[in-house]
Amino acid sequence: MRMQYPARVSRDEDGRYLVRFLDFGWGATDGVTLEEALGEAVDCLDELIAATMERGEALPFPGDMLATNTWPISPSALIAAKAAVYCVQKEKGTRKTSLAQKMGKDEKFVRTLLDPHAGSRIQSIEDALRALGKRLVISVEDDIARLNP
Hints:
Elements: E1 5-11, E2 17-20, E3 28-31, H1 34-54, E4 70-73, H2 77-92, H3 96-103, H4 107-113, H5 122-131
Antiparallel strand pairs: 1-2, 1-4, 2-3
């Protein structure tokens, strides 16, 4: 599961760069420069994912990365990792209490782990994914906000 969403970039009537995530159907951000707008897009995506998780809804599957004027945006590492646990847990239909039991923890621990605004240790996220039959893989990529299109 790659946590990366296409962001449509356009210019508004004032010349600012507007960034929208069409997969979510709501939410946008902007910036004076393309670099600023793409940097703000990460924060916007974090909030879109967090709000979706808080409502208990399924995260949308990322759409077409090759569409015109789109950029691939990844959320921050912690949100991506928490969202991965959230998606796998929902996909498998695993209740929080069951996940807690598999991890040898209490339900409050799992609720905090799945809270997008709470801090969590990466080891705890790895433990949760392992309990769900998955593993966390990390990669390092170029910062697209610093690349010239």
